[in-house]
Amino acid sequence: MGAQTAWPLYLSIGNIDSKARNSAEHDAWLLIAYLPTVVWADDKRTHTTLNFRLIHQCLKHVLHPLIAAGNDGVKMMDSVGSIRKMYPIVAAWFADYPEQCMLAIAAKNQSPITIAGHHDLDSDVPLPPRTREWILEKVAAACSTVNPSNVIKYTKAAKREGILGVHEPFWEHLPWFQPEYVMCPDILHGLLKFWHDHILKWTTHLVGKDELNGRLRLVPPVTGFKSFSKGIQGMTHWTGREDRELQRIILPVIANASKITEGVMTCLRAFHDFLFLVQYRIHTPSTLKYLSDALADFHKTKQVFIDTGARRGKKGVITHFRIPKVAAFHFYQKHIVMMGTSPQFSTEITESAHKKMAKEPYRASNHRDYIEQMCRFLDRRERIAFMRSFLTWGRVEIPKHLLIQQTAHLSTGYQRHALEALAMKQREAKEEDLKKKRRIKPHQGIVLNKNPRQKFQTFVSLGDAYLLPDLVPALHRYLKAGTVVSPLYILEYWDLMRMHVASGWSSNSISTRSCDDSSTRQTTDTLKDAPRSS
Predict the structure, then answer these.
(1) Res. 532: pLDDT tops 50
(2) What's the predicted TM-score (pTM) here?
(3) Domain ranges (residues) in the chain
(4) Tens digit of each residue's pLDDT (9 = 90 or more) over 255-274
């Protein structure tokens, strides 16, 4: 939003299915506050601590109703209308590393999840968790030494205890708040960003920028994979997708490079195994063991990046791996067992909400006193959405005999018009239902052009034109192997395909399914016409 800032705070509930909760189209996240940003007139040395204290006081005010609700319970209506006594608690908090430290009042270069200090961050074994009791003991120890009103001295005393200068954490009285589980390991900043900032740089140093870019340019285009036809040199705008796509091909691309030794490749394989296993949406005891084994292998072999000089900073080779995100790797497996799979707790989800909850409302304002206007904008949009859903829910088709009774006092002509309108509405509803039944479902991953260029083509002729002799048998096998649709739907789908093929097409968009969720579509790629010989 340009030079303007706002710190939105979102809320959702955990009993919504994670796939629906984390999809932007379902509006399962609610904005509950804009946290303030303040310019302080005090001593500059106190500004950081005062900002932290302000955020904690604001969160304490916003979340205060959860204290009584979590302790005493509150009556709520479930989806079938039954009244139940519920005990809502703060179970998970999506945040990147700086925010996690602020919320868990962990000092700089400390782990916000474990008690690991700066010199323990690269430990190959997990350290004890940073529990609520442990943090409050450290706060009490700092308060017994220095009065918190003396911000500068208290901050120094707190730093010696491994905490920030916050003496009243917002979660102090929240029931069942466990920081070591609430601060969820973040895939976006904890893994993808670590890979981009460290693993990729170490690998690039060993392979060489020109060599790596040259190898990437030689990778042939493959359906379902992003093509780096210009390499990665000069790329200024990186997103999570670019990182994920490069992670899929980086190991075979760098194989056999002169400085990529067997030890380097073993370490890289172990880390990428850990990276991909963490992103599984379904886990079993076997996959969790694979996860721990991959992490153990990474720690056993990570020294190779120091030995080869790849782990380096501005002053030369760095001889340690004291990176806070490395300490957080140990917690993924434990958090998955306690709270569920990690992809549902990534900050990618909340960051995608910024567009609807912050950027759009700001653009709708006149950019003066914009916070108040943004709140009013969101309130009105929520009211409109609620009324629209209510009207949709309450719309009931009027039976014909009831319509006759209700219009009995009117003229015969009016009754005839009303019955005709009812019959037309019912026909339209049936036609719409039929269209929905014949429509290709999104997870099937095939999208045909609306206005194809070639017409009157058959599967046989297309197989000959594109040198695909097994096209027709492959389509038969694909349709027969479908387990998510009924045989009747397969026949209807086959008829629909024949209608489209009869009119021909110039290109197709095809997307693969996720290996751990058949209803999730992966990246979509377009297959265009093959070059025609004269």
Answers:
(1) no
(2) 0.73
(3) 7-185+346-384, 187-329, 399-438, 442-528
(4) 999 899 999 999 999 999 99
